[in-house]
Specification:
CATH superfamily: Metal-dependent hydrolases
Largest sheet: 6 strands, parallel
Structural class: alpha/beta
Strand content: 5-15%
CATH topology: TIM Barrel
Number of domains: 1
Strand order of the largest sheet: 1-2-3-6-7-8
Helix content: 25-40%
Shape: globular
Bound molecules: zinc ion
Radius of gyration: 17 Å
CATH class: Alpha Beta
Number of helices: 11
């Protein structure tokens, strides 16, 4: 069989996506991409998959289709900690996300908010972002860190090479490597090449993710794939749960 890119991160109507699972699968196949469905699984995200029982029902539904069975879990929400091992094994792969980060004073900041707390500098924000990333990589048994460069919209307007110091990049890469967590090349929140190259050079596995919610977005991984190739990663090294296994235990 010829190699196919895997879209490890796409949403369906189980959470905030516009397409049914069948439509995600069909669209990905039309685009020559191996599909997965990785809906939000959290008590603090736009989803109905918000309890251990709902997770079972979600997995029962996905099992009816030829799709990889993923899930996007919020690090800051405790639901991922509550799933029994037998449930976890039913996922082909799991994605962890920093939708909220923990600030130095212990409070939480939702990264989709444009207004930063009073007095929080971009440097302090990024310190909190990377500290949260380190905690996620150390304690969350996921296969992929979704959109590693997702930060408040205010900060997304800045030059990422200044927002991210090389020391912060190095810390993020070391944490992912130590945790065995792949770095997602998100088509939605695109990482800058310097960080991607640093991750690849350090031996962190890269993963393709459309983070698609609509017909135009789902399974569109062309730019992430081009980015992976541009930093010298062979196609067959891009994360594929069926090829590389998963921390869920699905393939042992
Ligand atoms: Zn996300
Ligand atoms: Zn997502």
């Amino acid at each position: 069989m010829t190699w196919q890119p895997v879209d490890c991160h796409a949403h369906s109507t189980h959470s905030d996506g516009a397409l049914s699972v069948a439509e995600v699968a069909e669209l990905a196949r039309d685009r020559g991409v191996r599909p997965s469905v990785s809906d939000h699984i959290s008590r603090d995200a736009p989803t109905v998959v918000d309890s251990p029982r709902a997770v079972e029902a979600y997995l029962d539904d996905l099992a009816q289709y030829d799709v990889l069975r993923g899930g996007e879990f919020c690090w800051h929400d405790a639901l991922w900690r509550e799933l029994p091992r037998a449930t976890v094994r039913r996922f082909t792969h799991r994605v962890g996300s920093l939708h909220s980060i923990r600030l130095a004073n212990g409070s939480w900041f939702r990264v989709f908010h444009r207004d930063l707390p009073a007095g929080l500098t971009s440097g302090a924000y990024m310190e909190a972002h990377v500290s949260s990333l380190e905690a996620l990589a150390a304690e969350m048994p996921v296969d992929i860190l979704a959109h590693p460069t997702l930060v408040s919209p205010t900060l997304r307007e800045l030059d990422p090479h200044e927002l991210w110091t090389e020391a912060l990049e190095e810390r993020a890469v070391r944490a992912l490597l130590a945790g065995g967590v792949a770095f997602e090349l998100s088509n939605r929140y695109r990482p800058h090449e310097r960080l991607v190259r640093r991750a690849a050079d350090a031996g962190v596995r890269l993963s393709l993710g459309s983070d698609g919610h609509s017909r135009a977005q789902v399974a569109d991984v062309a730019l992430p794939l081009a980015l992976a190739r541009s930093v010298g990663v062979p196609d067959g090294e891009l994360y594929d749960p069926e090829r590389h296994g998963s921390r869920t235990g699905a393939f042992v």
